[in-house]
Amino acid sequence: MKYSLLYYCSIVLCILLVGCQGEERSPIEVRLYNQDLDAVGTANFKEQDDSVAVEIKVEGLAPGFHGIHIHEFAKCEAPDFQSAGNHFNPEGKEHGLMHPDGAHLGDLPNIEVAEDGTADVELEVQGATLMEGDKSLLREDGTSIIIHADADDGISQPAGNAGERIVCGVISIEESADKEKPTDPTESNVDEDEEDDN
Ligand SMILES: [Zn+2]
To answer: What is the mean pLDDT of the chain?
Structure first.
C-alpha cells in the first residue's frame, strides 16, 4: 500500500513536470547549428527587467568579430539560413546600433571569437521579452538567432554588411521543451508511411 502510493505520486509528479516544461518561457535554451547542421554551441535566454539576457557559448568559428542578430522567423534551413528572414524588427526601425533611426530590436553588439575558435559571451536584447507581446522573442512560433561571417558595421542597411549567415538557432518554447524528450519511434514510423503514400 505504502509503495503503490509512492508509485502513483511519482507518476503524477512526472506529468506535472512535463506539463510545466511545455509552458516554460524563461529560461530558454537554444542549440546553435553551423551550415553543415553540426551542433556548435548554445544560447541561453533569460527574462530580465525590460530586456532578455542571452549567454552564448559557441565553438568552431573563425577568430575575430562576428555580427549576431535576432531574426524574425523560427526557421534554420541550411546552408544559407535565409529561412530565418530579416532582423527581428517589430517597431519598424532602421538597422544598426549606431544608426540615428535605429535600431532593430534584434540588433546586438558584435561578439569576439578567440584564437581557438570559441566564444563565451553575455549580451542583452534591450526592450525584448520572453513573455507575451509584440516584442516577445517567443511570439507566434518564435524567432531565431544568427551569427554572421563578418562584423556588423552598425549602420549599413539592411543588415550591417555582416556577410553570410554561418550559425543559426531556433528560439521557441517547443524547441526548448523538445530537447528533453527522447525521440519517439512511433512518430518517425508514421512520417515514413506518409512519405510512402506520396
Ligand atoms: Zn538589424
So the answer is: 86
Domain-located, residue 105: yes
Tell me the CA–centroid distance for residue 150 and ligand 1, in Å: 14
Q: Residue 8: which pLDDT band, with cuts at 50, 70 and 90?
A: low
In a domain, residue 50? The reply is: yes
- In the chain, the number of structural domains is 1
Q: Is 193 part of any domain?
A: no
Q: How far, in Å, from the CA of 86 to the mean position of ligand 1?
A: 8
The Cα–Cα gap between 86 and 71 comes to 6
- Half-sphere exposure of 71 toward its Cβ, with a 13 Å CA cutoff? 25
Q: What is the CA(144)–ligand 1 centre distance, in A?
A: 13
**How far is 171 from 106, CA to CA, in rounded Å?**
12
Ligand 1 centre distance from Cα of residue 13 (Å): 44
What value does the mean pLDDT take over residues 147-155?
A: 97
Distance (Å) from CA 104 to ligand 1 centroid: 5
Task: For residue 30, tell me if it sits in a domain.
Answer: yes
